[in-house]
Amino acid sequence: MESFAPLIAASINAGTPLLLAALGLLINEKSGVVNLGAEGMMLMAAVIGFAITIHTGSVPLGFVAGALAGALLAGFFALMTVWLGTNQYATGLALSLFGAGASAYIGISYVGQSLHNTRSVVPFLGDLPFVGAALFRQHPMVYLSVALCGAIIWFLYRTRAGLILRAVGESPSSAHALGYNVRRIRLAALLFGGACCGLAGAFLSLVYTPLWVEGMVAGRGWIALALTTFATWRPARVLSGAYLFGGVTILTFHLQGLGVPIASQLLSMLPYLATIVVLVLISRNANWIRLNMPASLGKNFNPNQ
Prior knowledge:
Helix content is 71%, strand content 0%. The chain is mostly helical.
């Protein structure tokens, strides 16, 4: 059993950036906005968080910088889609491409540099047999991401503000008629989602690797987008789904380490193949998707019309 503890720990570590990004995207989509720019926001946050940490020596400051970078890009996305009414899908794709190019340019001077290991051991619990090695020797951000998931569940289903957010996602015109400022609510949701994607990107460059490499997000932003649909827009399912995809990622490395006679390129495809398979299985039941999906998802709202 002890041999499985490192695999569980690695799966949780690999699933954490997916969890952070998917939770932010879930809040976006609960407000009725689809942001396809997660990949670009994560890349920009990864390089900026890494640069700040290199220059200051402070990992927490790197996380703050990454979250701010993600929120800033999300704010630009909100300006374009919520206020100017541009197409959400096209704007999100443009944001993703911008983040990929800008991060590669900014990160040129940081290639080859690395940080020390920033994981920690929870006192007493970290020394427990099996459970300690599997669950309690992670970076604090891992535990904060789980706490964030619980906070989002409480916010969405136990608070008035969460009810208003879900109402905006279902029928923005009705929410507007009741006196709620739909644009500001969507802006707040997008800024929160951008900050979460920023934390996810910073986690990759500060904890998961920890170094900067061009394109290091490697499609995780797209997997996080798929994860929100896979979880039918429910935070608890996002949590389990993120760790599931994280486990698939670690499985590829484990199989390579065991010398399984399969090309490494094929093994590296497993997380993305799993994403496609899940989406295909879900899309077979269109009614199930419609019942769970916010009714105004992807639709712009103009209060003046």
